[in-house]
Design goal:
Elements lengths: L1 E6 L3 H11 L5 E7 L3 H10 L5 E2 L13 E4 L3 H13 L3 E4 L8 H14 L3 E2 L8 H6 L4 E10 L24 E7 H7 L5 H9 L6 E7 L6 E9 L2 E9 L10 H15 L8
Parallel strand pairs: 1-2, 1-4, 2-3, 4-5, 5-6, 7-9
Antiparallel strand pairs: 7-10, 8-9, 10-11
The chain binds nicotinamide-adenine-dinucleotide.
Length: about 270
């Protein structure tokens, strides 16, 4: 059985831990860490098989663990990703926006080769990455329109320098239009999908992103258009937000669970 360490015990981390505990992911959750002691303690309380709570994030990968699952924040990725690989552990990253910093991407990519370890980025809250990955050399344009309820956008850095008051939005309003690179830095907790698309396709400066607030929606909707010499693909994914964190879609959690299940199983692997 593979051994898993978990960094971040919030909405995603908790559901991953429960999936391991129930046997859906055939593995053992051996160690967990969260900056919030309450979050790690409350997660461990929910589990039949209790992992050890370590004292800091670097201690996760100093144990004999196969893979560290990051479900915390971009800062957590910047802080621990390299040492995880140096400690000969694989790594699954949910806070994908951290990788749009090219120096971080290059350091981690080199470390994967040097230490013969792999970083896994689940497809998150979108579908279609398999197709985009296959035809990326033939892509000419790639765009993402994300529509969410205004409350799902709250707390984003963008609003520090904006006149927009999310509480006063009463009709469909475009909040932001720009490149994926800008979107990820201004909406770091909301737009991991833009980071994933950029890394899969034609880069963060050529991927166009629009963020729309809709006060009447109960879904997080991502509409993707990809065009090139191969033809055209469009995907619309309408996700319900997770009950514990409206910024996170249910599909993001399920895609993380499926990526880990695949990592831990010897099985027929379907899909590109
Ligand atoms: N890839 C995707 O499609 C996708 C989708 C949704 C969310 N995410 C990202 O995944 C991450 C987790 O999402 P969530 O919904 O579980 O968030 P959450 O806020 O519910 O939980 C995050 C947990 O991590 C802890 N944490 C934050 N920074 C930390 C650090 N540096 N070290 C240790 N613990 C830390 C927090 O205390 C919290 O308990 C976020 O960065 C989010 O943006 C990615």
């Amino acid at each position: 059985m593979k051994k898993i360490g978990l960094l971040g015990c919030g909405a995603i981390g908790t559901q991953i831990a429960l999936a391991i505990d129930s046997g859906k992911i055939p593995a053992t959750l051996t160690h967990v860490y969260d900056n919030s002691k309450d979050a790690s303690a409350s997660l461990v309380k929910k589990l039949k098989n209790k992992p050890i709570i370590v004292e800091n994030s670097h201690l996760l990968s100093s144990n004999p663990i196969d893979i560290i699952v990051e479900a915390a924040s971009q800062d957590a990725v910047k802080d621990v990703a390299l040492s995880v690989l140096q400690n000969k552990c694989d790594l699954m990253i949910m806070s994908v926006g951290a990788l749009l910093d090219e120096s971080i991407y290059d350091i981690l990519s080199d470390a994967c080769r040097d230490f013969k370890k792999t970083i896994y980025l689940p497809s998150g809250a979108i579908a279609g990455l398999d197709g985009i990955k296959s035809l990326k050399d033939e892509l000419e344009s790639l765009s993402l329109t994300t529509t969410k309820h205004p409350r799902s956008l709250k707390g984003a850095k963008f609003f520090e320098n904006s006149q927009i008051n999310l509480d006063e939005i009463n009709s469909i309003t475009t909040i932001f239009e720009g490149t994926a690179k800008e979107a990820v830095s201004l909406f770091p907790a909301n737009i991991n999908v833009a980071a994933l698309l950029s890394l899969t396709g034609i880069g963060s400066e050529k991927t166009n992103v629009k963020i729309v607030a809709d006060p009447n929606t109960d879904k997080n909707t991502h509409h993707i258009e990809a065009a090139g010499t191969f033809g055209k693909m469009t995907f619309t994914i309408e996700n319900f937000p997770d009950v514990n964190n409206p910024k996170t879609s249910r599909l993001a959690i399920l895609s993380a669970i499926e990526t880990l299940r695949k990592y831990c199983s010897n099985d027929i692997q379907i899909g590109t």
